[in-house]
């Protein structure tokens, strides 16, 4: 079996698991407890929080641990909009883009129930936002703009510093879902200098454990978010609940691994991607890349295969773990991300997404090219 679906999730790095283990049985205390065991765990978490904050160019108090990016997106969007609707009831618009993950799109759409006015911005055929269309949307007083840094189906990378500056010019807050960009872009993610007010990150996309993520909430000037649920006032009251210490330790290790090894990994995966595209296009010249080629992650690609249905192709190569769209979307539904980039239904249904990661070997890439090509050849010939 060859795993080519690192955009949907990554395996835990073994070094992450090793770092986590002592925190299940030995250092198991509640980080809020006053006793020596609790204090030890609290100090460990403080150190991890500070290290992660430093890597992201922010300060410790701005980092909130959540159960993942879905929760971080929900708190960022619902929490900030609830506060602002209460305090500035005339400003209602919330803007996001058509290719966002469902945890942003559905949340924004549901903000209508608390009086907000959702506005879904279309994207261009390369998946990028046209800044003029954002400018036009911002002519109506806007609470918040939410744009993902990198797309989970196409890998297309938006110009976040530019879009956040534009949003601020019109007085709107800026939220960014960094789930797919974190650990995968060669440029260092710097939340403050990128002009981000609220951000979301997921542990299981960066070789950390599932069930942990980060919400960044800017402190100066202070961005207010109301909690989605109430409890013991952990995480500054923004996210109550006993801290999942082993998961936080794993997340911290995952961050330090990509901090040390990330650039080398990105270069290696970029060379695999170039190889795969060149080799496939040499065999099947009509293979098309969906989305911007220039502004895209170096570990993934979304490809359109001529004259075949992607599902027929995948049925021939069950040992290749890849997909036709996001795992978070219903499999039988054609990708709304590709549809909103203007692809026809037939083009959408002939597309697959493929992503490499830390454990991918060159040999696997060579086999993938070979197997994809023979499957395409057989399906097209109807053999
Ligand atoms: N946003 C994006 C862009 C994603 O790709 C994902 C995971 N598919 C999420 C949010 C949700 O992350 P989590 O699984 O941590 O809730």
Could you walk me through the main structural features you see in this protein, from its secondary elements to its overall organization?
With 383 residues, the protein is of the alpha/beta class. The protein has two domains: 2-7 and 262-381, Aspartate Aminotransferase, domain 1 (Alpha-Beta Complex); 25-256, Type I PLP-dependent aspartate aminotransferase-like (Major domain) (Aspartate Aminotransferase, domain 2, 3-Layer(aba) Sandwich), CATH 3.40.640.10. It has helices spanning 14-20, 22-25, 36-55, 69-87, 102-110, 131-137, 160-169, 245-283, 310-316, 336-340, 345-349, 362-381, and strands at residues 2-3, 63-66, 93-97, 117-121, 142-146, 173-177, 198-202, 213-217, 288-289, 300-304, 320-321, 351-355. It has a seven-stranded mixed beta sheet, with helices on both faces. The chain has a three-stranded antiparallel beta sheet with strand order 9-10-12. Helix 1 packs antiparallel against helix 8 (245-283) and helix 9 (310-316) crosses helix 12 (362-381). The radius of gyration is 21 Å and the shape is globular. The chain starts with a strand and ends with a helix. The relative contact order is 0.16. The site of 4'-deoxy-4'-aminopyridoxal-5'-phosphate has 14 residues, from helix 4. 4'-deoxy-4'-aminopyridoxal-5'-phosphate is lined by residues 68-70, 101, 103, 148, 152, 177, 179-180, 202, 204, 213, 328.
Q: Secondary-structure map with pairings?
A:
Elements: E1 2-3, H1 14-20, H2 22-25, H3 36-55, E2 63-66, H4 69-87, E3 93-97, H5 102-110, E4 117-121, H6 131-137, E5 142-146, H7 160-169, E6 173-177, E7 198-202, E8 213-217, H8 245-283, E9 288-289, E10 300-304, H9 310-316, E11 320-321, H10 336-340, H11 345-349, E12 351-355, H12 362-381
Parallel strand pairs: 1-11, 3-4, 3-5, 5-6, 6-7
Antiparallel strand pairs: 2-8, 7-8, 9-10, 10-12
4'-deoxy-4'-aminopyridoxal-5'-phosphate binds at residues 68-70, 101, 103, 148, 152, 177, 179-180, 202, 204, 213, 328.
């Amino acid at each position: 079996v060859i795993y080519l679906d690192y955009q949907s999730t990554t395996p835990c790095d073994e070094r992450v698991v090793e770092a986590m283990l002592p925190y299940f049985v030995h250092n198991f205390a509640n980080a809020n407890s006053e006793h020596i065991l609790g204090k030890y765990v609290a100090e460990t978490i403080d150190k991890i929080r500070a290290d992660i904050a430093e890597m992201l160019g922010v300060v410790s108090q701005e980092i909130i641990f959540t159960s993942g990016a879905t929760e971080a997106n929900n708190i960022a969007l619902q929490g900030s909009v609830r506060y602002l609707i209460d305090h500035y009831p005339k400003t209602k618009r919330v803007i996001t883009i058509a290719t966002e993950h469902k945890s942003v799109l559905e949340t924004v759409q549901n903000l209508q129930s608390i009086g907000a006015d959702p506005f879904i911005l279309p994207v261009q055929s390369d998946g990028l936002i046209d800044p003029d269309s954002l400018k036009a949307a911002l002519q109506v007083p806007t609470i918040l703009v939410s744009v993902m840094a990198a797309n989970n189906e196409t890998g297309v990378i938006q110009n976040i510093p530019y879009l956040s500056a534009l949003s601020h010019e019109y007085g709107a807050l800026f939220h960014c879902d960094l789930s797919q960009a974190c650990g995968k872009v060669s440029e260092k993610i710097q939340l403050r200098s990128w002009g981000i007010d609220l951000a979301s990150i997921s542990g299981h996309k960066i070789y950390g454990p599932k069930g942990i993520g980060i919400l960044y909430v800017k402190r100066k000037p202070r961005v207010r978010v109301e909690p989605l649920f109430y409890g013991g006032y952990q995480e500054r009251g923004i996210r109550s609940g006993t801290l999942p210490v082993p998961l936080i330790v794993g997340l911290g290790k995952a961050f330090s691994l990509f901090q040390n090894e990330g650039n080398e990994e990105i270069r290696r995966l970029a060379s695999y991607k170039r190889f795969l595209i060149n080799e496939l296009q040499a065999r099947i010249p009509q293979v098309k890349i969906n989305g911007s080629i220039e502004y895209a992650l170096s570990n993934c690609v979304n490809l359109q295969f001529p004259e075949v249905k992607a599902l027929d192709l995948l049925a021939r190569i069950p040992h290749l773990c890849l997909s036709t769209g996001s795992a978070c979307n219903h499999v039988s539904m054609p990708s709304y991300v590709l549809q909103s980039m203007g692809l026809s239904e037939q083009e959408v249904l002939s597309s697959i997404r493929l992503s490499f990661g830390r454990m991918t070997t060159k040999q696997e890439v060579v086999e993938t090219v070979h197997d994809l090509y023979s499957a395409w050849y057989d399906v097209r010939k109807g053999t």
